[in-house]
Amino acid sequence: MSEHRIELTVNGHRHAALVEARTSLGEFLREELGYTGTHLACEHGVCGACTVMVDGVAMRSCLMLAVQANGGAVTTVEGLAEPDGTLHPVQQALKDNFGLQCGFCTPGVAITMAAVTRENEGAGAGQIEKALTAAMSGHICRCTGYQGIRRAIRQLAGATT
Amino acid sequence: MKPAPFDYVRPGSVEEACRILSEAGGGATVIAGGQTLMPLLNLRMSQPFVLVDINGIAQLKGVTRVEGGTRVGPATRQADALGDKTLARHLPAFITALGHVGHYQTRNRGTIGGSVALGEPAAEMPATAVALGAHIEIASIRGSRMVPADAFYIGPYMTVLEPDELVTGIVYPDWPDGHLVLFREVAQRPGDFALVGLVGALEVEGGVIRRAGIAWFGMGPTPIRARQAEAALTGASLTGIDAPGVARAAVADTAPFDDHHASAEYRRTVGARIFARCLRETLDIRSAA
User: Fold this and answer.
1) Do the Cβ atoms of A135 and B1 come within 8 Å?
2) Interface-testing mutation among B6, B53, B78, B105, with chain A (most A C-beta atoms within 10 A)
């Protein structure tokens, strides 16, 4: 059972910590650093609630060890809005379109949407909508609020062209 | 904290990784993307003493052209492979199959080698390696060896890989330009493991099939090569193919299970249908062109 000293940034803030090897990134973010916006549910990669960006790429924080994020830059849902509280366009789109009900899956959904919209910057509305919709296969909303999420996607696709 | 305790090491070279694997005496597990392994750790179905992270080994990443084929480094991310121009040009069947592996978020972390080496019988990449005639390149402190993909898999999540061995590459032979891609799968949701699926390639010249490589996934304990169908198709003229007959021959090689998602009978029935339809549609596209 090894322990490792890691350094990483989360939403632009530097953190250093000693972590047990088996600690997942998601657990580390929540329990050690207090970024409880990232939600852990299934912890085997199926539900998508724990999705964060590591070095700008959306991935499951339950399927990655904290020690593997050493030296990386993590973005959680807390890092999407502007410091003055202005919502990120994906958050605004979800809000405008009732794209969340209980909100448990929302942090992961918002992170995926933010990553996909950035990767498709400058693409046509159709391409953005297609990419966002395809990426949503990686999220489960147990309120079954998928139509609201779809409307948010359409708004985002229209707004970014 | 979900997994049982383990040590974690991040070697910087293949030699170092092989030495660690050898010294661990069977107690080590290699982690690349971890998209299948981490669930197994979290569920404590896998309890290694040492986790050997190969993400820091640069020589295990990337796609290169080699004599007569294309070599894919095992630690190459699925998302990177999906956008790779060499793979798109030389291995269209590989790219088609890869598009069905997991989800956007898991492809961003998951690797080609992880999928190939774990040998989940319903996964796309092991079957693709078998269908295309790939070889698995393996190293240990005892030396290196190449194993044909269809001799690599021996059961669900079981391969001929010894505990001290590391997959260092997957080498796919070239198929000629313009070869045809066969791919169909039935899954409950996009990104789920397939209930039944097939992947393959056909080399067609002058209206005759010269070479066929086809494998099933989700149709038995390992990816299964459709040998009888390959034999029936090889040398066949495109105008004289009995698609349902070939599909029946293809299903005859399978050994599907009953599970709570689908019965073996369902898999055989659906398998025969999608095989016949895939063959008809793929060959029609060709003859119309």
Assistant:
1) no
2) B105
Low-confidence stretches of chain A (pLDDT beneath 50): 161
Domain limit, last residue, from B173, B190, B211 = B173
Does residue B168 share a domain with residue B275?
Answer: no
**Radius of gyration over every alpha carbon of chain B, rounded to an integer in angstroms:** 19
Name the minimum distance, in Å, from the CA of A97 to any CA of chain B: 23
CA A8 – CA A31 distance, rounded (Å): 15
CB B109 to CB A60 under 8 A? yes
- Please report the pLDDT score of residue B191 as a whole number: 82
Phi, psi of B51 (to 5 degrees): -105, 125
CATH code of residue B92: 3.30.465.10
pLDDT per residue as tens digits for the range A100-111: 999 999 999 999
Contact at 8 Å (CB) between A131 and A111?
Answer: no
The whole-number pLDDT of residue B193 equals: 87
Q: What is the pLDDT of residues A18-36, one digit of tens each?
A: 999 999 999 999 999 999 9
In chain A, what are the domain boundaries?
A: 3-79, 89-159
List of chain B residues with pLDDT < 70: 1, 285-289
Residues B217 and B149: their CA atoms lie apart, in Å, by 14
Which chain A residues are closer than 8 Å to B4 by Cβ? 22
User: What is A89-159's CATH topology?
Assistant: DNA polymerase; domain 1 (1.10.150)
Residues of chain B contacting A48 with CB distance shorter than 8 Å? 103, 105
Select from B246, B249, B193 the least CA-distant residue to B217. B193
Interchain pair B103, A138: CB under 8 A: yes
pLDDT at B286: 53
User: What residues form DSSP beta bridges with B212?
Assistant: B202
Task: Find the closest chain A residue to B104 by CA distance.
Answer: A135
- Least Cα separation, residue A52 to chain B (angstroms): 9
- Options 1.20.140.150, 3.40.50.360, 1.10.260.40, 3.10.20.30; CATH of A3-79: 3.10.20.30
Nearest to B238 by CA among B214, B215, B212, B273: B212
CA distance B131 to chain A (A): 27
Structural domain of B262: 180-288
- Write down the pLDDT at residue B288: 44
The tokens describing A46, both together, are 């199926």
How many Å lie between the alpha carbon of A138 and the closest alpha carbon of chain B? 5
